[in-house]
Amino acid sequence: MKLRIILFFLITILCSAIFISACKNNDVPGDNVPYNPTYINLEVPAGWPTPPDIYVNNKLTEEGFQLGKKLFYDGRLSKDGNFPCASCHQQFAAFATYDHDFSHGFNNTFTTRNAPGLFNLAWMTKLHWDGGINHIEVQPLAPITAQNEMAETVENVLNKLKADGDYPRMFQSAFGTTEINSQKLLKALAQFMGTIVSSNAKYDKVKRGEASFTAPEQNGYNLFKAKCETCHKEPLFTDNSFRNNGMAVNTFLNDYGRMRISNDKNDSLKFKVPSLRNVILTFPYMHDGRFYSIGQAIDHYRTGIITTQPTLDPLLINRIAITNTEKNDLIYFLQTLTDTTMTRSPRFAQ
Amino acid sequence: MNRTLLILLFSTGLFLLSCQKSPDEDLRTGTVKITFKNTVKGNPLVLNTGVYSNSFGEQYNVAKFKYYISNVVMNGTQISAGSSEYYLVDEGNAASLSFSFTAKSQIYSSLSFLLGVDSARNVSGAQTGALDPLNDMFWTWNSGYIMAKLEGTSPQSTVVNNKVEYHIGGFAGTNSVLKNINLTVPSSINVPLNVDPDKTCEIFIEADLDTWWQGAYDLKIAVNPAATHPGALAKNISDNYSNMFKITDVKLY
C-alpha cells in the first residue's frame, strides 16, 4: 500500500511536470542553457537631466553590454575585417578619431565628416552631425553599410557572426536565444555605446566639491558661462540643437548639414552643436575637421564667422568678443572637461 | 488501484485545463485573408520583361515593386494581433502577396489599412520581421522606412541608365507619405465581407501601379525620374498612389 502511494505521487508529479512544461512557450529551442542575465542600469550622474529611455525595448544587461563591446571592437563588422567601429572611435580620443579631420574607410577612402566622440549618447535626441539618425539602435547601419566606411552588408555581418565560435553563445547569454539577427546585433551595440558615460572630468569633481579650479580655469569657466553656455549647455555641454556657426561651405563636400534631412532651406549649413566634454581630445574641430587646434576653433568665433549667411545663428551675428587673455583662460577651462576615467576605463576597453 | 487511476486522471485533466485559455463561446472567429494583385491598369504586373506606358505615353518597365501594409482595421476597429502586424508586400516574393489574420465572426462593411509604417515604429530603434532593415526598406542616413518602392527603367528617364527610382518615405510633418486606405466592397461584387466561424474570407485587392504618375498630380517620368528622399515630390507621389487600391473580389470558403 505504501509503495502504491509513493508510486502514485511520483506519477502525479511526473505528469504535472510534463504538462507544466508543455504550457511554457518561452523555452529556448535547442538551447539548454538557462537565461539568467545580470540586469544593469544606465548611470545617470547626480544633477543631470533624465535621459529619454532609449532602453525601454532593450533591457540593459551585463551580457548585452559585453556582447556590444565585442561587436564594437570586431573588424568582421566591416567588409575586409580592417574597420571595426573602434577604428574611427578610439577610446583614448574619447571615442572620436584622434588627429584626423576625416577618418579612413574601406579601400583607401575618407569619410565626409569628422567622427564625433561617443559618450553620453543616451542624452542625445538625434545622432550624426545632421541629426539624421533618430535612435541609437539604428545608427550602426550607417557606418556598416557606407562604402567609405565599413563597406559591408548587414546580411554578411550576420553570417560571419553566426559562423563564429563565440557569438551564438554570447547572444544566448544576452538575449535568451542563440538566434542572431539584425535587431539583436543593433540592440547589443546600443547597450555598449549608450552606457559610455563621461562624468568624471575635473569639472565634474569641482561641481561635486571634490576639487577646485585654478584661477585661470575659474576665469575661463566664468567666460564660458557668459559667452558659450547657451549652445554648449551644462552639464552635457550641448543643447542638442542644430545651428549655423558661420563657416564657409566646404566646396569639396558641399555639405549643407541639417537641410539634407529636413528639406528646409532655413536649416542650410546647420550642424549639431557638439558636446565640449573631452574637447581637447577630439581635435580637429567642426563637422569637417577644418580647425586643427582648439585655439583656431575659438578664433573662428572671435574673428572668422561669416556674418552675412542668412541662416547664421542670431547669437553669433556680432561674433564673440574674447580677448587673448580670456582665450587662454577659456582653454584652461576646456581642459578641465577631459575625463580620463572614461578614456582609460577597462570597462570600455577592448 | 481504480481509485488511484481516477485521481491520476483527474489531476492530469486539471493540468491540461490550466493550459487552456478560458473558453468563451461568444468569441468565435474565422480567418481574413488579404491577397494583393499588383497590376498596371488591371493587367497583371510582370517584373522586368513587361513593358507598359503611362497616360503621358511614357514607356516603362518595373524591376521592383514593394510596399508596407500595417494597422489593418475592419469596421473601424482593430481586429486581432495579426491585423496589427506589419506586412511587406513584394511583387518579387509570391509568398508576400497574401497574409491572413484571425477575426471575430461577423459581417464587416469596410476594410482599412495604413500604406506604410506608422511613425512610432520609425523612431523606436531596431525592428525585426517585416521591418528588418535587411529588407532594404530602411534609410540608414535619415532614419525611417521607405513606405513604398518602385524601381525600373524608362526611355524617357534622363538619369543614369534611364533609371526610374521611387523610394517613397517620410513619416513626419507636411511631407508625411503615410496614407490611410479605406476600402469598401464595390456593389458589382455581390459578396459581403462575412467572416464565418472557422471559415476564411479572402479579400482580393488590386494595386494599380500606373496610378503613381497621375491622379492628384501629373508627374511625368521625363520630369521626375527619381524620388529618393522625403520631401514634396515624395508626398505628391504618395497622394497619387493612395488611389491605387480597390477590392476586386471576395471569396468565402
Distance between the termini of chain B: 50 Å
CATH architecture label of the largest domain in chain A: Orthogonal Bundle
SSE class of chain A? mainly alpha
What's the CATH superfamily of the largest domain in chain A, by name? Cytochrome c-like domain
Q: How is the biggest beta sheet of chain B arranged?
A: 10 strands, mixed
Average pLDDT confidence of chain B is 92
Percent in strands of chain B: 35-45%
Major protein interface: A-B, 36 and 31 residues
Q: Specify the number of helices of chain B.
A: 3
Shape of chain A: globular
Query: Taking Cα atoms only, what radius of gyration of chain B do you get, to the nearest Å?
Result: 22 Å
Determine the structural class of chain B based on helices, strands and strand pairing. mainly beta
Strand order of the largest sheet of chain A: 1-2
Find the count of extended strands of chain B (DSSP E, 2+ residues): 17
**Shape summary of chain B:** globular
Oligomer: heterodimer
Count of the separate structural domains of chain A? 2
Mean pLDDT of chain A: 93
What is the N-to-C succession of helices and strands of chain B? Answer: HEEEEEEEEEHEEEEEEEHE
Major sheet description of chain A: 2 strands, antiparallel
Question: How would you portray this structure in words?
Answer:
The complex is a heterodimer of chains A (350) and B (253). Chain A is built from 13 helices and 4 strands. Chain A has 350 residues and is mostly helical. Chain A folds into 2 domains: 136 residues, Cytochrome Bc1 Complex, Chain D, domain 2, CATH 1.10.760.10; 141 residues, Cytochrome Bc1 Complex, Chain D, domain 2 (Orthogonal Bundle), CATH 1.10.760.10. The longest helix of chain A has 22 residues. About 5% of the residues of chain A have low confidence. Chain B has 253 residues and is mainly β. Chain B has one domain. Chain B has 3 helices and 17 strands. In chain B, strand 10 and strand 11 form a beta hairpin. The termini of chain B are far apart. About 2% of the residues of chain B have low confidence. Chains A and B meet through helix 1, helix 4, helix 5 and helix 7 of A and helix 1 of B.
